[in-house]
Amino acid sequence: MRQNGFDVSQIRIVVSVQPRVLLCRVDKTLKPNIDHFLKIGFSKPDFFEVVSVNPYVLFNCHPQFVRATEALKDVMELKNIWVFLCDSSRFLDGVHLMASFGEKNIESKIRMFENFGCMRSDVLALGRKNPMLLGLSEARIKRSLEYLMKELGFSPDYVMSHGALLSYSLEKRIIPRIRVLLALKEKGLIKKDHAPYTILNRSEPHFLNRYVLPFEEIREVYAKELAKLTDRSSMKPSNEGRAGDDKP
Length: 248
Prior knowledge:
- This protein is mainly α.
- The protein has a domain of 81 residues.
- Helices cover 61% and strands 0% of the residues.
- The chain contains 13 helices and no strands.
């Protein structure tokens, strides 16, 4: 590792996280794996960043992983749609995505985002921040975009800049919470103009303690929505957040 430019602190990190790297054969494992990453265009500083995030790549560069990195490199060079290397910490997520779903599948999802008015550059930026959002099924992405944009009126730019919305379940989180928000407003239980994203982004315990449990009529609304949309209907309070943190 020293011969390939690792300093003492980097070697210490690798060995502390994956001690069995010391059992690897230099000629059959370590050197070929390091050479592979340098061959596909990594600078040594970038490679050190990847190794510091996941030292596993040093001794288990299996054929599927190699094919995925080579495919990712080809896509980046030929079509310029993947820029995961700009964040080394996300490179392995990008490789996993490519290995699991393939270029055509991911490209199809990007086109679907574009059909909803999203800019390609924004979709790629979303992929850089959280590659696995593009690992969601097309059906799920489509349903989420339809609800967020058509039902809630969010703009494409807003959805792209609040990518966490796409990771939330419609049935278990988004729809029940939105209906709770509407019920709170209709009954005059909240006076502030709460933005939908505020209530969607809360942790489940905080959401329950702040928006549901203090109001008997809202507890009933939420329980009915969960029972209707899912098989989950229990509501448990927690110590996270307090009812009345924000005055209704």
